[in-house]
Design brief:
UDP-N-acetylmuramoyl-L-alanine:D-glutamate ligase; 9 helices; nucleotide-binding; EC 2.7.1.50; ATP-binding; Hyethyz_kinase
């Protein structure tokens, strides 16, 4: 009997000539607006449209939204294409809802953005996840709080981008339950940070140890240490 395939295999694609084929073979799509250009935006929209045509879930990371009018407007256009999940920090989620043009700090108190997240989830008809000391995940009515993780993870660039990609992988396995999929992805990522922190001396070693911990997670650790609660 063959062993089941485990893990997710990412492909970073932005050439529009490849979008249709790569989206067709992917189980889920992750769109991250961290790097923007007119050409990349065209590819992002094409990928989202193609994913919708193929009934495949896609996840949006609105990196830095609110920092410029160009970025904010392009983000709103992508949200109109119906992502399954939007994952951002508090300032990003509040910027999306308010369509504000103001500098974003990167990491805020997630509870400050709870009402904005619920409002966005209702309007966009998707799941909204807010990263913070306690991660919040909502469909506009239900709210799950995830309390795994350590504060030092905020000192590592691109942890938010990484967990958004992990959410896409989880949603691809269980597309019918994106709320729970997003919460479990956040919990496992945070748990990996906790385990990695136990043998780290700073953010550089935490990055390495966190990835090792994520790779080595077993069922016992997951079941005994993840902390997800209904709020």
């Amino acid at each position: 009997m063959e062993e089941p395939v485990q893990g997710a295999s990412p492909a970073m694609v932005h050439a529009v000539e490849e979008i249709s084929e790569f989206t067709a073979i992917a189980n889920a799509l992750c769109i991250n607006i961290g790097t923007l250009s007119p050409e990349w935006i065209f590819s992002m929209k094409a990928a989202a449209v193609r994913a919708n045509e193929l009934n495949k879930p896609w996840v949006l990371d609105p990196v830095g939204v609110g920092a410029s009018r160009f970025r904010t407007e392009r983000c709103l256009e992508l949200i109109a294409l119906r992502p399954a999940v939007i994952r951002g920090n508090a300032s990003e989620i509040m910027a999306v809802v308010g369509a504000t043009i103001a500098p974003t700090k990167g990491v805020d108190n997630s509870t400050d953005a709870l009402e904005a997240a619920k409002d966005l989830a209702k309007k966009a008809q998707c799941i909204v996840a807010v990263s913070g000391a306690v991660d919040l995940v909502t469909d506009g009515k239900r709210v799950l709080g995830v309390s795994n993780g350590v504060s030092l993870m905020q000192r590592i660039t691109a942890t938010g981008c990484a967990v958004t990609a992990l959410i896409a992988a989880f949603v691809s396995i269980n597309p019918g339950r994106p709320l729970e999929s997003a919460a479990y992805a956040l919990a496992l990522f945070g748990l990996s940070g906790e385990i990695g922190y136990e043998r780290s001396s700073g953010p550089a070693s935490l990055r390495m140890n966190m990835l090792d911990a994520l790779h080595a997670l077993d069922e016992g650790a997951v079941l005994s240490r993840i902390r997800i609660a209904q709020i």
